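Notes for week 9. Today we move from apo structures to complexes. The key idea is that a small molecule is not decoration. When we ask for a structure prediction with flavin mononucleotide present, the ligand SMILES becomes part of the input, just like the chain. The input block below holds both the sequence and the ligand string. Read it once before you look at the output, and try to guess where the molecule might sit.
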Amino acid sequence: MAGQPLNIADIRKDYILAALDEEIAGEDPIVFFRQWFTEAEAAEITEINAMTLATVDANSAPHARIVLLKGLDASGFTFYTNYDSAKGTELSANPHVALLFFWKELERQVRIEGVIEKVAREESDSYFNSRPVGSRLGAWASPQSRPIAARNILDANYARYEQEFSSIEIPRPLHWGGYRVLPTRIEFWQGRASRMHDRILFSKDGAGNWERSRLAP
Ligand SMILES: Cc1cc2nc3c(=O)[nH]c(=O)nc-3n(C[C@H](O)[C@H](O)[C@H](O)COP(=O)(O)O)c2cc1C
């Protein structure tokens, strides 16, 4: 209720579910990420592919928002967006990014840092064509991150593109596509009792091999 003090400082939770040992983490963080992702799926966590994406703009100011992980292979983590959005502009100025997953039901966090590349046009086409019609029209209708005077402008844009593409396959707009984060650091965090959490970090060395270490919580 308005006026009631918020006891934010009193909110705390002890983490008790699991431990993270080096043998469990193994040698390859992508393989281990897949294992944790599979476990998150099995735990029926909703929106497990939602991740915070942090970017840095040309003035070194950070910006963060959620995007959805849509692909993962040995080279990296893929998401899709508008290349002309604020994040697209920031990524043109500075390709360094951080990704963050928080699967609270498993008391787990994964931090990923690396640089970005655009995915191949064919890969973006293929994913775009797999999206529902409404999402494909939305990619045309929304000038993402730009000011708009009112929602009905979006609705009008949507209706215009719906009409324009009523009898043809909706093409992918060139300003919309994928980015792949090529990781150089991946840290797995498992909450533990008394704030004695486990943190296993994988860092890429100069030769491109993963080195594993443990960090204090
Ligand atoms: C659960 C969730 C999933 C989202 N997924 C995406 C996504 O995959 N791609 C995207 O461009 N924006 C996505 N968004 C919207 C972004 O958080 C953000 O509002 C938008 O990309 C504009 O960001 P920008 O102005 O920093 O470029 C998502 C938001 C939420 C809350």
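Residues 29-42 form the longest helix (14 residues).
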